[in-house]
Amino acid sequence: MGAEPDPTAPDASTEAPVQVSAEFATDLPGVPDSLQRLWTPHRMAYVSGEAKSRDSERGCPFCASPGKDDAAGLIVHRGEAAFVTMNLYPYSPGHLLICPYRHVADYTDLTAAETVEIAELTQKAMRVVRAVSKAAGFNLGMNQGEVAGAGIAAHLHQHVVPRWLGDANFMPIIGRTKPVPQLLEDTRRLFAQAWSTA
């Protein structure tokens, strides 16, 4: 049988994170190598599934986003039936999502007004990204259903993914890491400022 837990010991769940300085790193386990480490703890909510939307409007990030101010909701532009937002987990820098305000999963269930506005916002998003970031091309698309790759299948969203020559490298393939050189808020602000002139 194991020993009884020490009631005077600190609770591991409430302990502050350990800070390791470089001068003490030689006393820790592991073999140094030539690789850099890109620590992204904010992605754990996504990796663990905590950030996954449920199949209801409550808990849906695309339903919650318009209720926030533009910076907090990562919103670039608000239309009548749809809005443009930054992707919190971008495939490439400047990855935008065009979403109807209405919580609807299937493209065939959009109203005529939603369909037209999503198409027009997609075109405008491409012009804005080209003007601000000099994108050389785009991947556009919707994943309809979880089986088709939709991370949030309950609320339709159109991806606008900017591309540049040579933008795909070994990092996502070998390192399972996507470097993003600009903060989302900085990119959102630049796109929002350019929206009326592009």
Automatic annotation (TrEMBL):
The lineage of its organism: Bacteria, Bacillati, Actinomycetota, Actinomycetes, Propionibacteriales. This is HIT family hydrolase. Residues 61-170 form the HIT domain. SUPFAM superfamilies: HIT-like. Substrate binds at N87, H159. Pfam families: HIT. Keywords: Hydrolase, Nucleotide-binding. It comes from the Bacteria. The active site is at H157 (tele-amp-histidine intermediate). It comes from Parenemella sanctibonifatiensis. The keyword Nucleotide-binding applies.
